[in-house]
Design a protein that fits this description.
This protein is an alpha/beta fold. The chain has 6 helices and 6 strands. The radius of gyration is 21 Å and the shape is elongated.
Length: 160
């Protein structure tokens, strides 16, 4: 039997993610991993087979020991699939460190998107998004500053 873990992240409807993962992986043993201050609803408990609680609600690079304990717990559980609820650099790194054979994230439209579980891949993806974002910002900045605008342009069309 496959073992699947869904790691909770604030801001997303966790029940929708659990239902989508359940639909994708069928009879797999589904574990909901949540922070200590998150209370699962009756529907969420009904979808999950097991519930794990993390040591902290948030982890910081300034205090790496709790994060390393979390990674150790996840690795010791030997999940076949580790699902994160957002495509963020921090969560991708956690997924890469999970030791799962397959990692994925659940997109806002409910798609289960597989990701390569490597730390280098997560960092490269973050770097590429950073550079891409800066290029788009530079293009928009140049367009706004350098584009010639005719006096009275669109506002005259709206007056008629």
């Amino acid at each position: 039997m496959r073992r699947v873990c869904v790691f909770y992240s604030k801001g997303r409807n966790y029940l929708d993610v659990l239902r989508r993962v359940r639909a994708e992986y069928g009879k797999a043993e589904l574990t909901a991993m949540t922070p200590p201050n998150y209370r699962l609803s009756h529907q969420e408990v009904a979808v999950a087979d097991a519930v794990e609680t993390t040591e902290r609600a948030a982890y910081s690079a300034k205090d790496p020991k709790p994060f390393l304990r979390l990674v150790g717990r996840i690795r010791n559980a030997r999940y076949d699939v580790f699902v994160i609820t957002f495509d963020s650099t921090r969560l991708r790194i956690l997924a890469a460190l999970s030791g799962a054979k397959q990692c994925a994230w659940c997109s806002l439209d409910g798609q289960i998107v597989r990701i390569r579980p490597t730390v280098v891949g997560a960092l490269a993806s973050a770097g590429a998004r950073n550079v891409g974002g800066r290029l788009v910002y530079a293009w928009l900045w140049a367009y706004v500053r350098l584009a010639k605008v005719k006096p009275g342009g669109a506002s005259e069309a709206n007056r008629e």
